[in-house]
């Protein structure tokens, strides 16, 4: 994977230990140091649809509130998270519903 200077660095052969939700949390916490991080496995809502598989861990709803997003567009925030989770996508993660906010944006929306 080619990365630009501002792209996140993720070990290509990162060990796949723990469940996917735990690995996602660890990756996002390490890189973004979020004030708020909520991760919900919504795979059951996609049963029988593309990318779904028995056992879940394919579709997640993630809310991240982090100062690291300040000055970045919504698409840049989401691209950053997708790049961080590239290995998870390579091993069965199919889709993310992402809410990516700065602390000020979260306060405006009443997210705590």
From TrEMBL:
Region Disordered, annotated ranges: 1-20
Pfam families recorded: BolA
UniProt cross-references to SUPFAM superfamilies, sorted A to Z: BolA-like (SSF82657)
Coiled-coil regions listed: none
GO process terms (BP): iron-sulfur cluster assembly
Record's compositionally biased regions (Polar residues): 1-16
Family classification: Belongs to the BolA/IbaG family.
Protein's name according to its UniProt entry: BolA protein
Organism: Pseudochelatococcus contaminans
